[in-house]
UniProtKB/TrEMBL annotation:
It comes from Exiguobacterium aestuarii. The lineage of its organism: Bacteria, Bacillati, Bacillota, Bacilli, Bacillales. Residues 6-49 form the SpoVT-AbrB domain. Transmembrane segments: none annotated. It comes from the Bacteria. This is AbrB/MazE/SpoVT family DNA-binding domain-containing protein. InterPro entries: SpoVT-AbrB_dom (IPR007159), SpoVT-AbrB_sf (IPR037914). GO terms for molecular function: DNA binding. Keywords: DNA-binding.
C-alpha cells in the first residue's frame, strides 16, 4: 500500500499553486500534467511524453520464438510496423456507425 503524504500549499492571487518538489519527483512530472476533478477532489497525473510502443514485449517474443542474428532485427521491425495499422483498424471498428446485431455477434459461423 502506498503511503499518504499531505502538505498545505498556498494559492496565489492568479490561482496558481506550486507542487512541492517531493511530490513532483515522486509522480514523475515532466512538462505537463492532467488535472481531473472527481467528487470535489483534484487529481494530478503526469503526462508522459514517451509513448509505449510495445518494443520490449515485441523483442521478448521474437527472442523467445528462436529468432537469431539479423533475423531478430528484421522480425522485430516487421512486427513493430504492424502496430500502427492494427491500432488504426481497431479504432475504425470501434467507431463504426454500422449497428451490430446479436446474431452478428453470437450467431453460428456455419449458417449460410
Amino acid at each position: 500500500m502506498l503511503a499518504t503524504k499531505t502538505k498545505k500549499v498556498a494559492v496565489s492571487s492568479k490561482r496558481q499553486i506550486a507542487i512541492p518538489k517531493e511530490f513532483f519527483d515522486a509522480i514523475g512530472i515532466e512538462k505537463e500534467i492532467i488535472m481531473e476533478l472527481n467528487d470535489g477532489v483534484i487529481h494530478i497525473k503526469p503526462v508522459r511524453t514517451h509513448t509505449d510502443d510495445f518494443s520490449e514485449e515485441i523483442l521478448a517474443d521474437v527472442i523467445q520464438e528462436g529468432f537469431t542474428g539479423n533475423d531478430i532485427l528484421k522480425e522485430f521491425q516487421r512486427r513493430k510496423n504492424m502496430i500502427r495499422p492494427a491500432i488504426s483498424q481497431m479504432i475504425k471498428e470501434a467507431t463504426s456507425t454500422k449497428p451490430t446485431s446479436i446474431d452478428d455477434l453470437f450467431g453460428d459461423d456455419d449458417e449460410d
